[in-house]
Amino acid sequence: xxxxxxxxxxxxxxxxxxxxxSYEKKVDSVISEYASTALNWLRKAExxxxxPKLDLCVEDTGYEVAFAGRxxxxxxxxxxxxxxxxxxxxxxxxxxxxxMINFFSLGNPHQRLVDLPGYGYAAVPEAMxxxxxxxxxxxxxxxxxxxxxxxxxxxxxxxxxxxxxxLEWAYSRQLFVHVLLTKSDKLNRGxxxxxxxxxKQELKKMKLNFSIQLFSSLNKEGLEELASVMGGRLNFTLDxxxxxxxxxxxEASADDxxxxxxxTNAAELNENPNNNLDQLK
Length: 281
Ligand SMILES: Nc1nc2c(ncn2[C@@H]2O[C@H](COP(=O)(O)OP(=O)(O)OP(=O)(O)O)[C@@H](O)[C@H]2O)c(=O)[nH]1
Ligand SMILES: [Mg+2]
Hints:
By secondary structure, the chain is of the alpha/beta class. It contains seven helices and seven strands. Helix 1 crosses helix 6. The site of guanosine-5'-triphosphate (GTP) has 24 residues, from helix 2.
């Protein structure tokens, strides 16, 4: 029997795969329309304020998603990547850069993302570390608008002690967690996918049904997937992209934002260039 090469325009077998591909493309395009619109929306991010403690945070209304993880995991860089802004959040080679709870509005003050100080930073004096951890804990326990966490782990050192504590604690509080395995550019494709699979399996073993993805702020891997998750959790819809009456909210001027940024810098505490990462075990 003559076997079709699969290239003939008239053959049924040649048409079949083409139909399947076009169907898949249609489904993908629905997903990516939401993801790319959400990504555009996230680009509206503006610095709102920094707070050293829960009482001083912005009003606890609307929806908030916080970026959490060990110091140096890439939280501030991920916020800059997802919002397509170079210096919205302060990223640094020196661990412990983010020392306050930093709020960013997304087009209106009722939908926010939050950059949290990293945990596991050894070089901070013990007394200060205890104060920070208490404040972080207060925020995580009492913040009503907090929908959940984007939990970042360096793909080369996932699931360290505090990460597991954070995951279990979030589960017990019924907060969602979306895990980012960050700095995926540091590994080749094979090892990166292997790491992803291994962490997925570990989460499954712990009976933690959280979503997870690869992410790189450097080469922008995973932006759309993250934008989709954040949009969903922050109540972003295509029909009513903000969900709020924008006219009723006064906009901050560029000067206000600059002033606030300067205040934040002034308030940031002792930086020691000799600091090393505390490897939590
Ligand atoms: N190669 C690579 N480096 C990254 C990536 N993301 C962050 N980094 C680097 O990792 C370091 C720490 O990044 P930050 O974004 O400041 O980390 P952080 O989690 O906010 O740290 P803290 O504020 O200390 O909690 C910086 O030197 C970044 O340039 C990435 O995707 N790829
Ligand atoms: Mg930071």
